[in-house]
Write a structure and sequence with these properties.
Blueprint (H helix, E strand, L loop, with lengths): L1 H34 L1 H22 L2 H8 L7 H28 L7 H10 L8 H6 L3 H25 L5 H23 L9 H23 L4 H11 L2 H32 L7 E2 H14 L1 H5 L1 H8 L7 H14 L1 H18 L3 H23 L7 H4 L2 H16 L3 E2 L1
Parallel strand pairs: 1-2
């Protein structure tokens, strides 16, 4: 059964990545405790900015490489060209983030942190994940994550617990230092001096890849018009206290949403092993029920979930109540993501990327419009629900496409 194979591979990749995600949640606890609720909300905006520029650095290339090349991307001239492309895009994104900091964020309490994390773009611990996944070097991927987990836990533990870092710039700097060992491991596994040889073939490859990656990049960047736009809307239209409370639930759902991406990768891997063009409702229902079961605590026990995950946070009754309200609503996004996982991976396998890009962009634009319009007229408590608009429209668009083309079977 394809759904079970998807879950098996997706669970493995997710468990590998959850090593660092688990430590990250632990560190977020101490950061929240050191910064306080209000500053922790601002720190969430900084992290969201960083994630967006990471997406710009990727420009949809990771998905494109997986969908188009697979294991060939780790071999010969193609590998050198891919690595040259990734390095170039990362440098451009770092420069763009620095410019963004000096223009948009100048004067804000996250300005210095923004500049520091712009430098951090050059040393992302996950930079070589595409190499390990495409080559199916699972042991090396696991070793890389373990190395980063140990480094991150050690560096951040010393910075936050021993030296008591309680400013956004100092914490951002510690995060960069913590990423260096895993980045160095990736360099040791995948880097050679031949990568520095740039010729006409390299430039032609860049041109072709940018052209092919445009729909992937559009889809990737448009995804930030979904859940993340809610954080920016809250920051602009609500109080700092509500932003701080919202940030806890937002981080938890974003963490879960990030793990969902690995299931799309696992679905792509299994879809390449079959010629079926049909979407099987049985597989879709199995995966959706699996996600429902996993995320049940978000709805039934939000207070306990938040207290357990963010056990060191400086909770107050009002902050906890607000975070519970936000978590119950935002968790609905995970179910909507589960319902469309098979449809997305099928479109990506068939290289119907412009169609998917158009759909996710339409949903994102609607989400932005609804969030901005609604936030200016409704109380803050309604803001989490507004962020689900894009998710709902995207799921409906995908379902309509498969139904109209009679590509659904039980």
């Amino acid at each position: 059964m394809q759904a079970l194979r998807n879950i098996k591979i997706g669970v493995f990749i997710s468990l590998v990545n959850i090593l660092i995600q688990g430590v990250s949640v632990l560190v977020q606890n101490i950061i929240a405790n050191n910064l306080g609720i209000v500053k922790f909300g601002s720190f969430g905006i900084l992290q969201s900015d960083y994630t967006i520029f990471c997406a710009i650095a990727d420009f949809g290339m990771a998905t494109l490489i997986l969908a188009f090349f697979g294991k060939r991307a780790t071999q010969g001239q193609l590998f050198r060209n891919v690595l040259q492309l990734r390095l170039s895009m990362t440098a451009v994104a770092a420069l763009a983030m620095a410019v963004f900091a000096c223009t948009v964020r100048r004067g804000s309490d996250i300005f210095e942190g923004e500049l520091i994390l712009a430098l951090g773009l050059l040393f992302q611990h996950a930079f070589f994940d595409w190499f390990f996944i495409c080559g199916q070097f699972w042991k090396k991927l696991l070793l890389s994550k373990i190395l980063h987990t140990v480094s991150y836990c050690t560096v951040m533990g010393v910075a936050l617990c021993v030296f008591k870092f309680d400013t956004i710039p100092s914490i951002a700097g510690a995060m960069i230092v913590a990423a260096l060992p895993a980045f160095g491991f990736g360099v040791g596994q995948a880097f050679s001096l031949k990568v520095l040889q740039v010729g006409q073939h390299t430039l032609r490859f860049f041109k072709l890849m940018f052209k092919a990656a445009c729909p992937y990049a559009l889809s990737s960047l448009a995804s930030f018009a979904y859940l993340p736009v809610g954080l920016y809307t809250v920051a602009h239209f609500s109080t700092p206290e509500f932003l701080g409370a919202y940030n806890f639930s937002h981080k938890l759902v974003i963490l879960a949403s990030g793990l969902m991406v690995h299931f799309i990768s696992s679905s792509l891997i299994t879809l390449h092993q079959t010629d079926s063009r049909m979407l099987h409702l049985r597989d879709q229902a199995t995966f959706t029920l699996f996600i429902v079961a996993v995320t049940t605590p978000f709805w039934l026990f939000p207070q306990y979930t938040l207290r357990i995950v963010f056990f060191a946070a400086p909770w107050t009754p009002d902050v906890l109540e607000t975070s519970c309200h936000c978590l119950r609503i935002l968790a609905c996004s995970l179910i909507l993501q589960a319902t469309r996982m098979g449809m997305i991976s099928t479109l990506l396998k068939e290289k119907r990327t412009w169609l998917y890009g158009a759909m996710i962009t339409a949903g994102g634009l609607l989400n932005i419009a609804v969030c901005i319009t609604g936030a200016s007229r409704l109380p803050s408590a309604y803001l989490p629900a507004l962020t689900l608009t894009g998710d709902l429209l995207l799921s409906l668009q995908l379902a309509a496409y498969f139904i109209r083309n009679r590509r659904i079977r039980w």
